[in-house]
Amino acid sequence: MDDIHIDEFYQDCLKTLVKLYTSFPRLTTLYVDDLIANAGTDEYGIPNRRHKACFDALLWLATEGYIRYQDTIRHDALDQVVLTEKSFLRLSLPVSPVDNPDGPDKKQDLPSSIVRKQATMAWYCRQALDDKGSETIALAALEFFTRAGSG
User: Fold this and answer.
1) Phi-psi domain of 74 (left: phi exceeds 0; alpha: psi -120 through 50; beta: other)
2) Is the per-residue pLDDT at 100 higher than 80?
3) Are 5 and 57 in contact (CB under 8 A)?
4) How far does CA 96 lie from the centroid of its chain?
């Protein structure tokens, strides 16, 4: 399939956003190896295509204003990285039940704080990553990137 790199891009973006959401607002170092299995390097120590693509996805998120970072650590990590306000708000706001069919069932006897958390974009993204289906991940990423009225 020619577009597998797009599926990998969506997965790398969602993993990055969810990881940073769970540590928000703390500045952290985000390593490529924390997002993807050690893709390794060639015989000259140059990162392979998959490693480079993941690192470039991180840089794209920063360029587009979804994350902020202070510095790079070679091609291995971003240092002092955090979500921007735009990303934090998008991840914190509720997703419609149509977009998140695996969201909380209002009939369950759950505390309102849990119902609210399970209705967020962050929860939807986590569920998509746990599902590990490329179509589910793509839909969650597209929903995140196209959120209307959220910045």
Assistant:
1) left
2) no
3) no
4) 19
CB atoms within 10 A of CB 48: 11
Amino acid 104: pLDDT: 53
Closest CA to 82 of 20, 138, 38, 33: 20
What residues are paired with 72 via a beta bridge?
Answer: 78
DSSP string across 69-87:
-SEEETTTEEEEEEE-HHH
Beta-ladder partners of 83? 67
| SS3 label, residue 14 | helix
Give me the DSSP letters along 115-149: HHHHTBHHHHHHHHHHHT-HHHHHHHHHHHHT-TT
CB atoms within 10 A of CB 88: 19
C-alpha 88/C-alpha 86 separation (Å) is: 6
Phi, psi of 114 (to 5 degrees): -75, -40
pLDDT digits over 101-112, tens only? Answer: 555 555 567 787
CA distance 9 to 71: 21
